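tool=predict chain=A
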Amino acid sequence: QVQLVESGGGLVQAGGSLRLSCTASERTFSSLYMGWFRQAPGLEHEFVACISWSGGSTYYADSVKGRFTISRDNSKNTVYLQLNSLKPEDTAVYYCAAHRRSYLRRVWGEYDYWGQGTQVTVSS
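tool=predict ok
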């Protein structure tokens, strides 16, 4: 069982930045594809970004492209999400997720493991 723990959320003003981290308990972290999702109150989980096991391939939702950056450090079992130019509509609980299947995936249900989430609140 892979355990994922997110950190780095908080309250920030519009235009500000945050960096989210997600650390995995898995020894074979480097074999996991990782993703970030978010969920605003009353809405479904929304795909944000994902990254391949090597970090060589990434994919972003159109709503965050150019503002958010996903990266990973396999030596630290950690995946990051840099959030820049934040907007009030980015307010949500952010979750990291992992799977062992091949290729990048954008659907919450296609992941095998999920963290507990970290709250990001952007004030206007």
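The chain has a mean pLDDT of 96. The chain is about 0% helix and 50% strand.
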